[in-house]
Amino acid sequence: MTTATHPYDALMDITARPKAVFVRGAGSYLWDDSRKRYLDFVQGWAVNCLGHSPPAIADALTAQAKRLLNPSPAFYNAPSLNLAKALVDHSAFDQVFFTNSGAEANEGAIKLARKYGSLHKGGAFEIISFEGGFHGRTLATMSASGKRAFEPLFEPKVAGFKKAKLNDIASVERLINANTVAVMLEPIQGESGVWPATDQFLQQLRALTDARGLLLIFDEIQTGMGRTGKLFHYEHTGIAPDIMTLGKGIGGGVPLAALLATERASCFEHGDQGGTFNGNPIMCAAGLAVMEAVSQPDFLKAVTETGLLLESELQKVSARHGLGGVRGRGLLLALDLKLPIAPGIVAQAFEAGVLLNAPQVDTLRFMPALNVTRAEIAEMVDCLDGILTKAGAARRVA
């Protein structure tokens, strides 16, 4: 544990944090100011897709910082143009708007859908989202989210969001009316415990929205940029949405996100959307470095293989300790503990030098760097297995 004195009270107390202060990171590891090393299977909630302080991003940031930081979004800059072109070339979309956070990208998607409704659907403005979904912490994105803890907060919420049930197409159909303009969802609900939409359900949503003249919006803040073994999750399904949002991994650790749309859905007019720091060259330079790495077929193949290994190892842990199933895809996975013991496991793992995440009291979520090694997976699994064994948290069955 850190022995240094730090001004903890100067920061708003908005979440429980351990007293350790991290000072350095490299790949899958972090070090605190007492020189203790931690194996990180959280990676900033799937942000550091290439691990901590990867040379490619550090070099891109350093080089760009010496050239140009921010000329103002009133002017073009080369990194934003080049990153937008790379995203378009590798996706089903035609235009890109850069933002600073995933919530801001999702806010933009909501605004774009409402603009589309005002122009093409007689003022339709309602968006169907899903129970358990999480889209951010602005008022509109909290309203779009289906997180129960948000329900009593910051009332009144932004109107116009109806909640369907994931993987239940009939629940979506029942909510469609003349005011409906779009359906919005995460392909895998991360915050609620890594609950995937099935490929069949996503295909049904595409068919339904096409038939009813609605926009389909994928929030790929957590699933995009190679996290599930494809550059974008929608590629697993054989369909494409009209609007997609990216965040977290696209910056590899710096604040960068994006709103992508097809030509049909791109209906913002001058003055409708903007942002002081949006598309600034230093963040887009980092995004270009990430894009160069994760878009390589060999890299994505390795993510798939490593994800299957991690899934297999977690299934073995579950079998040994009588736990539940493993959910997710690629390197976004969850282990169902069947008992409300996740926070205790996270705390014990932290003391042992391993960082894990508990999105729910009965669930562990695993979001390692996309280039995590087999040895690092084995190290994490050994730690988790040891905690479960020592604590007797669940019975051994093998």
From TrEMBL:
One of its GO terms (molecular function) is N2-acetyl-L-ornithine:2-oxoglutarate 5-aminotransferase activity. The modification N6-(pyridoxal phosphate)lysine is found at residue 248. InterPro entries: AcOrn/SuccOrn_fam, Aminotrans_3, Aminotrans_3_PPA_site, Class-III_PLP-dep_AT, PyrdxlP-dep_Trfase, PyrdxlP-dep_Trfase_major, PyrdxlP-dep_Trfase_small. Its EC number is 2.6.1.11. N(2)-acetyl-L-ornithine binds at residue 137. Signal peptide: none annotated. GO terms for biological process: L-arginine biosynthetic process. It comes from the Bacteria. Pathway: Amino-acid biosynthesis; L-arginine biosynthesis; N(2)-acetyl-L-ornithine from L-glutamate: step 4/4. Its main location: cytoplasm. GO terms for cellular component: cytoplasm. Pyridoxal 5'-phosphate binds at residues 102-103, 134, 219-222, 276. Binds 1 pyridoxal phosphate per subunit. It is an enzyme of class 2 (transferase). It is found in: Cytoplasm. It catalyses: N(2)-acetyl-L-ornithine + 2-oxoglutarate = N-acetyl-L-glutamate 5-semialdehyde + L-glutamate. CDD domains: OAT_like. Keywords: Amino-acid biosynthesis, Aminotransferase, Arginine biosynthesis, Cytoplasm, Pyridoxal phosphate, Transferase. Its cofactor is pyridoxal 5'-phosphate. May also have succinyldiaminopimelate aminotransferase activity, thus carrying out the corresponding step in lysine biosynthesis. Homodimer. Belongs to the class-III pyridoxal-phosphate-dependent aminotransferase family. ArgD subfamily. PANTHER family: ACETYLORNITHINE AMINOTRANSFERASE, MITOCHONDRIAL, AMINOTRANSFERASE CLASS III. This is Acetylornithine aminotransferase. It comes from Bradyrhizobium cosmicum. The gene is argD.
